[in-house]
Amino acid sequence: MSSIIHGAGAATALSTFNPVDSKKLTNLSVRSQRYIVAGSEASKKKSFGSALTVRHSQKLIPNAVATKEADTSTSTGHELLLFEALQEGLEEEMDRDANVCVMGEDVGHYGGSYKVTKGLADKFGDLRVLDTPICENAFTGMAIGAAMTGLRPVIEGMNMGFLLLAFNQISNNCGMLHYTSGGQFTIPVVIRGPGGVGRQLGAEHSQRLESYFQSIPGIQMVACSTPYNAKGLMKAAIRSENPVILFEHVLLYNLKEKIPDEDYICNLEEAEMVRPGEHITILTYSRMRYHVMQAAKTLVNKGYDPEVIDIRSLKPFDLHTIGNSVKKTHRVLIVEECMRTGGIGASLTAAINENFHDYLDAPVMCLSSQDVPTPYAGTLEEWTVVQPAQIVTAVEQLCQ
Amino acid sequence: MALRLRSSTSKSNFLNILRYNNLGFGTASHAARHLRTHDPTLLRVSQNPISRFCNTMAEKLSSVGENEDANAQVMDFPGGKVAFTPEIQFISESSKERVPCYRVLDDNGQLITNSHFVQVSEEVAVKMYSDMVTLQIMDNIFYEAQRQGRLSFYATTIGEEAINIASAAALSPQDVIFPQYREPGVLLWRGFTLQEFANQCFGNKSDNGKGRQMPVHYGSNKLNYFTVSATIATQLPNAVGAAYSLKMDKKDACAVTYFGDGGSSEGDFHAALNFAAVMEAPVLFICRNNGWAISTPTSDQFRSDGLVVKGRAYGIRSIRVDGNDALAMYSAVHTAREMAISEERPILIEALTYRVGHHSTSDDSTRYRSADEIEWWNKARNPLSRFRTWIESSGWWSDEEESDLRSRVKKEMLEALRVAEKTEKPNLENMFSDVYDVPPLNLREQERQVRQTIKSHPQDYPSDVPL
Fold first, then answer.
1. pTM of this structure
2. Which of A92, A352, B209, B442 lies 20 to 30 A from A59 at CA?
3. Which of B103, B334, B355, B388 is catalytic?
């Protein structure tokens, strides 16, 4: 029968992570049916259902390090860095569908500022991997027009903060035209790029824009955090008929992980169970996942059993997975890199309170960055981002 | 300047020169990509058949190895050779004379002698004129309907019929159109019926926009006319993208986009023109310079000689046309389209005209311009009367046909209005569909909540919107 999988391992940036249950989750929503991972026959036979069926006894988990799944039926997989995973996903989709093209600044010969498009211009030509002049609104608009005539562009924002310049096109055209045209025109674009607080990149290049785009009807948003889900989400986003914004993080590009050789995609609307637990639900995404896992190590040593969920889908929220977790643990902590006011955590808090109020034993707590522009000084910058110590304190507070 | 390298040894010598001169190429393939060549068998370093060739390097490279004469010194700045001058000279902000305007018919509709124009057949000319009349009547009737409270909103195209119809006539049905909002004539030419126009304006269930947009925000996938988005100039980059898509598919078609004098101030205008030039995209930028952007006259909009001079700033071929001269418009667009597709370049067309109507039904333009001015343009510079004179003098039109046409269209128009008004609105489900390809959980939930509310308060729900 199915072997028990523990959650992902320790949160140091260089360690490898095991792909977890989420890729074998099935039947979460009608819409996701088409996108069930096409794995090998053997993996299809294993029925994991939701992560909740993987139950632990009530005793303490001695450590948060995952045990490797002994799976000899699938091929060995290959190891690569997150940006290479993104590139692999992109390349595979461009091979698969001649309509997929890339546009952005320095994506062509230069291979992209973070090398996600490296080698693609040589392989597919200058027209399919298009270097554009510096005008985000223009090339986003271009991609929308191209999408309406049948192409599937992948727009790269050199830094997600630059998307602020493309907001008009994203909000008014990208999100709306499928609706206002009465369904006549679809806009299957992917807008991707790095965001988040990096290492002293300055205030303007440390934007967390996910929350600004939340309200736009018609778009979907996902945030990747591991090489596995980066490739899976990239491919799913390209295949989706809706406009998708894929948020990457500047500091996660060099994460290394072994990913499957076979073709797979990740469901765009699903959250990822990183570490099942009993005492408290910690919801997070992108880089904060690693701070949370680091805090989890400390917490486990102190006798707590946190359940860590990487929400991955920022719009819409995967309230099914989140809800099941809340119903189990009755306590929620949200850890995010967004600003406090109007961040993703703010709307997630509202959604949880609205839907799962009866299951909560304590108010939903949200740890976010302060409402300040990101300072340049290294020490100050470090303290605008939620640190593992704060997470540990918050859990202790919630679990009193 | 093309560099033809006949043998691989000369090629490798040449590439060595490049490296030696430290022109900044990282690899031979990178260097090769920058050399202009007309012979595909030479210098084919990369496998892909579609490459853009940057012409800046070619000029630079052609000077490599030449003798340097001190008197004819040039500097190889990135971007090409530039000559020096010891005089301090500024380029004037305006030229002494304004760019002349291309026209074929004079003010009275007589053909100007020795004019160049593309010949139009009787069939096309008659259809052009009929469509202009239809557009005019449609505008008048819809405008009146709005004033009577039957329509919520409308924006007329009065005074700009020639731009609409003549440009549409010069295009092919595969050319994709990205309109602003004052170009319903293009749709009309392509076969959108009066009933379809009325359906969209009333937002009823027969509207192919499913009642989601304001009146005059038409869209038709079938007729290659992209749904109007109210935001100004956002359609310009979209058109460049569509042109890029057409170019990639090697289609015999171009993208065409319309905008007004006001729209040219938006950032998207400048970016789109720049992009189109760099991408070598086959797109026609047609500007309806009608003198007014709501209440802002062109003197408050820009200080250049109109739009036509802006093309050169971006490296785009441009022309200024009399927008009220249907023949000139037709010829200009026809020629531009051929250039755009065969030479893979964008073209900017500035059509000078006048916005006779108000900006929309929410505007009263007599508050910022004199009624005399409006009247003069409506009578003395009317595009319909000029063209009518010409087709009549060609023996293709008569007074009878005129009155027949007008009464027929008017009747058809009133009928279309009547039918559209009575047709049911789209049902409630359409409020939530097409936001995504499949309605997600939160939207299904929201629809459920709305229906629940309606159930408990049925008297507050409008009777002509089915559930």
1. 0.79
2. A352
3. B355
